Amino acid sequence: MSLDWLIKIITNNWPMFIRGAEITLLISMVGTIIGSVIGLLIGVVRTMPKPERGFKKTMMQIINGLLSAYIEFFRGTPMIVQAMVIYYGSAQAFGIDMNILVAGIFIVSINTGAYMSEIVRGGIVSIDKGQFEAADAVGMTHIQTMVNVVLPQVIRNILPATGNEFVINIKDTSVLNVIAVSELFFQTKSIAGNNFRYFESFFVACILYFIMTFTVTRILRYIEKRIDGPENYDMLSNKIQV
Amino acid sequence: MEKVVDIQHLSKSFGNNVVLKDIDFSVSKGEVVCIIGSSGSGKSTLLRCINLLEKPSGGQIIYNGENILDEKHDVYAYRAKLGMVFQQFNLFNNYNALQNCMVGQIKVLKRSKAEAEKIALKYLQVVGMEQYLNAKPRQLSGGQKQRVAIARALSMEPTVMLFDEPTSALDPEMVGEVLKVMKGLAGTGLTMLIVTHEMEFAKDVADRVVFMDKGVIEEEGTPEQIFNNPTQERTREFLKRTLR
After folding, report:
1. Residue B213, SS3?
2. How many whole angstroms separate alpha carbon B152 and alpha carbon B92?
3. Any CB–CB contact under 8 A between B78 and chain A?
4. Which positions ≥6 away from A174 have C-beta within 8 Å?
5. What is the pTM of this model?
6. Best mutation target, A138, A146, A155, A157, to test chain B (most B CBs within 10 A)
7. Is A149 within 8 Å of B122 when comparing Cβ atoms?
8. What is the mean pLDDT of each run of 10 residues along chain B (244 residues)?
């Protein structure tokens, strides 16, 4: 490895690196957020109390079946293959011409959604039954219980797992180069293709990926702390105006 | 006396296991009723059936002249009228003490934030927890949690308070502070239904004591009758074991 080359590559190509990193960050961030929303919705639906009989029960069974199929399929196939199927496949089979960036975000979102829905379901199941009962006892509906009591706790508890997904997404968006999304890996490949200095070029990409993932983990850790609130509480004076 | 909750022929089974058999039972306005009995006698299940945390298998629960087990009855509005205090406290972990007492008022009773806060403060003061408004449940001791839980239930201004073994999960030294709060409440004319293992407390505050055994109400009467002159053999055995 030559330091000269490294400096040369950076000075000549930094706008491309930065643009690639921006696209990577954009796709993985939007993908993680949309995926988390999908995961929350599916997780909530899958943990709803089961209706005992009638039309509602059949409906729930169908919905649950579809959701399971979605989760199993997207967890059970590689994202790189999904990217090919969804982008080129939909173009060939249905003549749909997707915007490449939208396609990238779509693929990352539904993938993350599949993983997140299981994470959310686990989070909901792990909440103490007493929390649900207490909410029932004050007269909350299932939705009120979820929104006001359960999900705030679930979101706090799954934050580390969500951060994990975010980090994985930052790294895994690199597979989107197969559908020519101009993310960091794709850009680096072009740069290296021009100068034939693969080691130095991808070394720069490495550093950029690491800076992104490291920053994201720190930010998430900070958010966790914020949600937890202060370690101590203030004792209030005895006199309260009522 | 006006009956607040009137239970007729209530039964409950979990699979083949019959927990409550044909229970007839009612609570009058302003009455303090203690339910005693050994573990597994069905007393907690009875309490949980009353606010429908358990779905009764048969019978009727009459509240305000309506059978709340009717399919079309508004379960949520009914539950809001009953305050429930759990053995395991079950404070909402994501809220501090004050918010715990406000969230039900705001979301279920649709009270304004200011009004909910005023009422919550009032009842937190009743239970002596007004200094801990911004403490999260994890920062409180068992006795403190239970007192906040009582304030949370009172903040809904229920017609009946249900206590499901409120001191059973507490360290012995914390039992006293919770019982003291409950005794104070009993003196205010609040209607209370208490499942308890605290015999001295039952003797002290109850207007009526109900002894349950194997899913039936074996005997009921004034504390005087139950503790001093029990008529049933099972009651005598139970008291001998617990009072010693």
Report:
1. strand
2. 10
3. yes
4. A24, A183, A184, A185
5. 0.86
6. A138
7. no
8. 90 92 93 93 94 92 88 89 96 96 96 96 95 93 96 96 94 92 93 94 94 94 93 92 78
